[in-house]
Each structure stands twice: as structure tokens, then as C-alpha cells.
Amino acid sequence: MTPTVYVHIPFCETKCPYCDFNSFAVQGRDVDGYLAALSEELDRRPPPPDPPTLFIGGGTPTVPRPEQIDRYLGDLLRRLRPDPAREFTVEANPGSLTAEKVAVLAAHGVNRVSLGAQSFLDRHLKTLGRVHSAAQIEEAFRLVRDGGIDNVNLDLIFAVPGLDLRDWLYTLDCAVALQPEHLSCYALIFEPGTEFHARRQRGLMHALDEEDELRMFRFTERRLRHAGWQRYEISAFARPGKHCRHNLGYWRNEPYAGYGAGAFSYLDGERCGNERHLERYARAVHERGDAFVSHERLEGSRAAAETIFLGLRTRYGVRLDSVGERHGIDAQREFAPVVTRLREQGLLRRGEPLRMTRRGWRVADTVSSAFL
Ligand code: SF4
User: Which residue ranges form the domains of the chain, and what is each CATH number?
Assistant: First the structure.
């Protein structure tokens, strides 16, 4: 199976206090130096020429200047065969996206933009430390549409401290009014290592009540289903035919080739992680031709468990016989005790394919760890 391709651009305008991605405020960073290292990595570890999908994530890939965006997209595409039909996504943020940058994306065949909207209420954007306003989300959305890119995702965050159900439904309604093709709705997580996590440890910030969070989760599906979006993964909602093919590849545990600082690759049954630190990444690529700092071979039951819990995140679920065939084990026998237990707990449905119940989706981490 041909791997999909992911490229990581780690620069943002500022670092959001809840974010644990490998991303850095761009001020004072050597963007050109990073892009040169990225280009060298693509040279020395060439991507497959015909990847089914391309995804440029970050960070905020549209924070660099237009000529820098033009350079890294050109560097990537020079190594691939042209295919305008393939899904080609770039992440962007309101505030820093301009008509000129959208034109650069479109000129390189980008056909999907994922916008970090997060909330349509300015006071929640402020709580989240975002540097854009609600009005700028709509401006960015129009820029993308006017630039001829007709497949747009909006990322939204719920369970933000100070956000009640009415606020969240307001944000959902504003998003629906824009009619994007795709919506990703995430609950805020206090990830260790983030400023939010530290504030919570010091008692300066409190997570939303679990019941309130579950209510928002439930209402999200109801509201979006009525408006014509189908939930096809825990956090992902699509209009008919507008599922994110790239992310579906991850959830099917299919291979991917990742480039850039902190990017992961999953190739020939091995998961490898790149160095996260920007200068060390550039040095490693220059000295060795790759920047891998971790290697993990996934085979047999371990690989099967991953395929199962990733597949369970989606509404399609997984077939244990196909999982077993793919990973060379008797998955039905091996996972029978855990499947029985999760069914008794009401977290998995009966029958095949194996699928989570709504309750299971809400505690997906518990289900995952049961398989691992
Ligand atoms: S813009 Fe996105 S990637 Fe950048 S710091 Fe904020 S949440 Fe993280």
C-alpha cells in the first residue's frame, strides 16, 4: 500500500497555552534554515511519488511568508507525480492567512484547507490564548473560498473553562452557517507540559465538569446531524463524500511517511519518530540523511491491537477476521476476552464489524487501553 505523506511546518504566530504539538512562536526562528533542512530530508529520504493524500500540518503552515510557502510546496511537489485528484490539505489559522497565501496554495494544487477556528466567541478565543477574533474566522473562510479552494474544515474546541452549553451551541451554529465541508470538534485536554496544565496544577484553572462535557459531546452530534453532517469518527463530522481521506488512512492504520521536526512515519511495519528540536533535526538530516530518534516495530498482536482501536474510533469499526489476516494472528480468539468484557460494559456493540457504542466513543481511551 502506498504511504500517505505528511509534512510538518512547526511555526505559529504565538504558542497557544493548551497546545502540546511540536510548534514554536515564529519570532526569532530561522524559518529559511528549517525549510532548507526539510528540503534536504525530502532529497535524502524521498517520498513515494504517488501518495494517495498529502497533508501539511503544524504548527501553522501558512505562518511563513508567501515566498517561503511557495518554496516548501514546490520542494515537495517536485518529487511527486502530479495528480490534481488527490486530497491535498494545508492547515491554516485565521488572522495570518492572506489572499496572497491562499493564491500560493491554490497554485500548487492544494484542494483542502483546515482552519483552526476553535470558537466563535471572542472571550473564549481569549481564554484559549488565540490571537485571532471570531470575525477573522469568517474573513479567512471567505479568503479560502474566494481563492477557489472548495473543501474546508473548521477545527472547534469545546469543554473550555467558562464555556456553557449555550456558548458551545452558538459556536456550532456559527460554524454551520458558514457551510464548511468538514468539522472537527475536540474537547479541551489539559496536556502535561502545557501552560494550561501548569495553571490547573496550581489551582488557577479548572476543567469543566465531566457531565457538562458529555452533554456538549451529545448535543454536538444531534445539532450537526440535523444540519447534514455525519459523525464518522469521534471528533470528525463530514458532509456527504467529504471525509478527510488522509485521517481515514491513520484510523485504518495504513502507512504514512512524515517529514519535518517531530513528524512520525509508519513504514514497513515500523513506526519512527523524527527529532523534535529544530536545530538538532536540521543537524541530524544533514549528517545522517534522516532525523529518526525512535524506532518501534509493530507486529502480531501489538499491531493488531492498534489497528483495532484506531478503527474503533470510526463509525465503520473493524472486522476482526480482516485484522487477523492482516497481522498474521487469530484476532477473534486473541481478543475474545476483552471484546466480551467491553460488550458487557456496554462499550462495544454486538456483532460484526466490531464497533463502539455511543458510550464507548465517549470513553474511547478506556476502550483503547483495554486492547493494548
Ligand atoms: S496555532 Fe495550533 S499548532 Fe500553533 S500553538 Fe496554537 S494550537 Fe498549537
Answer: 4-251 (3.20.20.70), 318-371 (no CATH)
